[in-house]
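Assemble and predict.
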Amino acid sequence: MLMGLGSDRIRCIAALLLTVVIPSVALQADGIRFSRDVLPILSDHCLLCHGPDGSSRVTEMRLDLEESAREVIAADEQGRSELVRRITSTDPGTVMPPPDAVKQLSERQKKILQQWIAEGAGWEGHWAYQPVQQLEIEADRPRDAIDYFVGRRLKEAGLKPNPPAEPEEWLRRVTLDLTGLPPTPDEVDRFLANLDYEAAVDRLLASPRYGERMAWDWLEAARYADTHGYQKDNVRTMWAWRDWVIESFNNNQSYDQFTIEQLAGDLLPRATLKQRIATGFNRNHRINAEAGSIPEEFRTEYVIDRVDTTATVWMGMTAGCARCHDHKFDPLSQRDFYRLFAFFNNIEEQGSDGVGPAAVPDVVVPVPAKERLLAIARLELNAAEKRLQAAGTDEEFAAWLATHRQVSESGSFWLVTPPEAVAGTSDGSTFEILADGSVLFGGANPLNDVHEATFPIPAPVDATTLRLQALAHPSLTDGSLARSFNGDFLLSEFDVLVNGNRLRWKSAIADRELSERTAATAIDGDPLTGWSPGPGQSEATAWFTPEVPLELKAGDRVTVRLRYESREEQYVIGRFRLSLGVGSRPDAEMSASLFSALNENNQQTLVTQFRETAPAFEKLRESRDTLRREVDALQAETVTRVMVMQERKGAPRVTHLLERGLYDHPGEVVDAGVPEFLGLALPEGEPVNRLTLARWLVDPRHPLTARVAVNRFWQQIFGSGLVRTPEDFGYQGERPTHPELLDWLAADFVQNGWNVKRLLREFVLSESYCRSSTVRPDLLERDPDNHLLGRMTRLRLPAPMIRDQALHVSGLMVNRLGGPSVKPWQPDGLWEAVAGVNSNTTRYEADSDDGRFRRSLYTFWKRGMPPPNMLVLDAASRETCTVRRSTTNSPLQALTTLNDPTFAVSAIVFAHRTLREEHGRDDAEILASMWQRVQGKDIEDRQLDVLTKLLEGHRDLYTEQPQQAAERIAPAEEWVNRPQPADAIRLAAFTEVAEVLLNLDTTLTRP
Amino acid sequence: MDDLFADAMKTNRRQFLSNSCRVGLGSMALQTLLNPQSTAAESAGKLPRAKRVIYLCQSGAPSQIDLFDQKPAMAERFDEDLPESIRQGQRLTTMTSGQQRFPIAPTIFQFRQHGESGATVSELMPHVASISDDLCYIKSMHTEAINHDPAITFLQTGAEQAGRPSFGSWISYGLGSESEELPAFVVLLSRGSGRPNCQPLYDRLWGSGFLESRHQGVKFMSSGDPVLFLNDPEGVTREGRRQNLDAIAALNQQTYEEKQDPEINSRIAQYEMAYRMQMSVPEIVDFSDESAATLKRYGPNVTKRGHYAYNCLLARRLIERDVRFVQLYHMGWDQHNALPKQIRGQCADTDQPSAALVQDLKERGLLDDTLVIWGGEFGRTIYSQGELTADNYGRDHHPRCFTIWVAGGGFKPGYSHGETDDFSYNIVRDPVHIHDLNATLLHQLGIDHRRLTYRHQGRDFRLTDVHGNVIHDIIS
């Protein structure tokens, strides 16, 4: 190499440095293979300008097509290839890639290309698009094939694999992998007694916990969440779809059927409700309800999301790249993309939706568990109503009646008038009339509003005043008076019409008002000024006096307009009550219905009023009301809605190719169809719809579906896929570490009916899986990323397993299958800090019941603010399809498993449980028991030494400071002081041991 | 050819390598970082101008017309229809696309020139106006989306769709952490008093997308523990926790001896860092060592958690302790109606603290190598949304032009870049796209925006997608 030129010298030094930093790998000993060695280089460095995308292609010379490439590969008369000349040139005008290209070729890559050409420039198609080929080997079972192919590569590399793992280690490994929970000491004992590996696996696969474990990864791929996402991020109810997934895995539904039902269950002949629910898969995407959004823009996004997700999950294809232009690397054209788009473009959905729990189209799903509870609650309500109807004696009634007649006849009282009807300016607002005659405002919450309430006059009265009470309610901001950000309101104007004639006011006063915002400004005709009591009030009352006292007749209609038209937003009374001041000095209260009954002297109504209002029956009424609320709540819960795929009626929507992927740039019309480069056409004579697409995907001849599925299941069990980019089987993806094995397993999977449990069973019974995970120095050096599987990979547990494990060992875990999402502990203020006031997920209220202790799979997932203890432990965000997670190691994770209340309480309860179960045993035995429960094996002396010292140290500290011990266990008081109070010092000291155990590397790691 | 990390690594190589080894930086980044050219370019002797970023994101989109982009000609055209020659049929949100007419709403606020640079700033921002000679105003910003969610996602991640890493995550990934006890990327939130029921934010804005999750922004909370799960559970003493961490380390060490897995050492180190964080974070949020003059400078809300002023001072304290990227969000700028009232509140929240932060950094010698960015996700329309009166109007979303200012980090001080038409509707000179701004910001951090990539789904993703040009006119 010439050393004269500065830049060359630098390059030369650089090349030297390269060899120091990244050990140079010898060129392939077995010769260059196009698909393995050459294509990745062409793809990464050349295809951007010489590839499939016509818009970025600079010449007609293409390196993705053999014919075109041959022209530059072929040697000229001097035996030189143009391609070699270009890549080795030092002339800036000639060299390829050009000097300003970001991605330059390394010397090694140049050598590979040269060697490839020297060896004759063999050409073959991209491996993943070729038909699956099953090599014939001597293997009875897939596990033998696994060990054969893995063994062969290890042998080629001259690496000796690790010996088998200890049985305890294997059991912990397989129990976590298949159920997401660690084995119990009992399960360990039983396994060690017979060492029956197959029986252990069968037990785990039969456990309902298996379906829950499998569902987590599927939920991440399906971008499942409990809110719609985007700006408003309101609640959605897709959990019945989640239940379908769990059930499907537990029933071992075949993967082809699992595919067909989720992509097109609605199109199956005589589709069942469950098959329709399954199609919720492609409605799990985000849905936008932002005001001002252009519906077609977002409807387009939803369809694109479906194409992206479906292509990633079933074909390992990065289809999204072809949204705006032809794929830069893979042979997927933009037209191909929109032909796939057309399959998913024909449902009757709204681009702007996502306010309610389900956006159309959806189905109503009965919830049998709630129906049973409802039947019971109804019986109880009936009984409670009967008890109330039988209450009171004649004497009591007479006395009550006399008192009220006296009030009525005094002609001076507050007549509480519940409205017949209330309306606001927004259709989505709701108004509930409560038992005390007040009106509770809910639903849509526009910035400005006018609430109009109308009530009839039951009997002639003379009214001198109108009273408006603003009352507190738990559903309002901070339990205050309004739904505004601070609970305050501003009543611009208070208009009252009697039989259509507007009253003129003499005065208005209030018991609470801001100095600038007095009640008087609510009758001044200026909508910008008005009455505010100020934030933080629990009640506020204003009295409005008309210029002329009202002489009202029975049947007169009073209309009250509460106008909220200032520049404050959502400053609207959340719960109001209207009353007429009858007589000169009203004091006692009387409901309009009682007043009416007294006037009519209707005995039956009066008796009812007596039982409904007399203080003596308060308890009876309360128990009836509680039951009534329960019945109402259950009634609402006996059905849930699930968004589904459902074709539009009539002609299908026309699909256009969208120029640059923009909804408002429609190009040519395209019909639904599948990419041709996969070499498998849609079956002829079938309708071109989602069902046919789904069946095409699971056609045994499809080159991708089985490979992609087997690879993802492999990843779930072994930690990384055979293809380490499960999301990308294209040119830019990684090549399989064991291509023959992947194909062998894919073929076997299809031949055996896409049987997932069988596949996993074979994985975990293979020798390769059963190996010890010790990181031998020679393995670490020669194969740091464990491509060759000389050892089992140690894996940091996924987020849900870490939390579930803590709940499991403490005994707090509530193992109930399926159902709506739950809200376990999370720090206060997380939702409040980000949510908009208009969202219905602004406030997180943790469950107080066993919702705290369900598996993490059931934790409510708000897209805008996912559960922090999941996110920090690398769970996917659920915004988009995710089929591969990174695993990181950060101080925030340590803080979570040390200090998150779920873990803190688990530690205390774990210690308490062990002390109770091991009652009467000595410290060493108790420590050994705790170790066994978490680690699934016996404690060693050196471990016991550390824990014994730790325990003693803490016992000394807590003995000196018993108050500290009491505080330490206080968060778990609910559990630890039953049946008798715990010995706080002892429990606190063992709690420290539990905390340490829950934070060990071996605890957080799948061995 | 500029190289991605050449500049950044000049000062930071040792730190960076030790970080990457400690936390197991993905092999992808390592390969990119250690490619031969980086060593070559290192000898070029260029230093990154900036090492840190404070991003003052004004969520909801402040009105450029009422703050920085003075349009005196509009005063004469009160309530006239926006000419079709200006609107040019461009798309509108569905909040105003149905309006019968688009009446011009001139600002009711007075503008005046400030400083030697003569920057025109409205009376709403007196403090910011007073430091105009330190600011680089970019009045020709433009973006793609017309709704908040995609637009703020674009501002923060360079893409409208969810799933991409945020700016701060890219910086954490690219430059690593300089702190032994604090995360590289911190997020601070505040609600505006101008419009308290404001646009929401979402966790993904500071998410790491497809980058490893340790690059996600760490939120400092406005209530409860300053960092999630920072505080020990009740009854735990520091010496007790120390004993536990020692036991964890001892037992993990035993495991390491048996398993030889390097990740175990990393875990031991992370638990130690967690312990140090528990000590250092409370110090950072304790402002008692700040002088009375400093506190006064940031205004009366400086000691109230969850307020913008508090977050500004906290941001300074964080970068002093080697946090790389502090991302503030101040909500409440979405003023569709009652703009004059609401914007007064927003400016009262942000004007003084923003200016105080810049001055404070300058006096401490930190402004030179700290980028401070102030701006929102798009601009607002000249025409009124809803009723237009002499003292009230609203403005709809407007992605076609808006103003952002940048201070420090080698951005030209006392400079105004770009120009919009008389209606502040279209850009007439020197447009700067969000991708251009991001490319320029990265450039100042010593990073070639085309080279800071991460391979995901077979593609090398960047903050600037396949776009972006460094705007040399705005940097010195």
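The radius of gyration of chain A is 36 Å.
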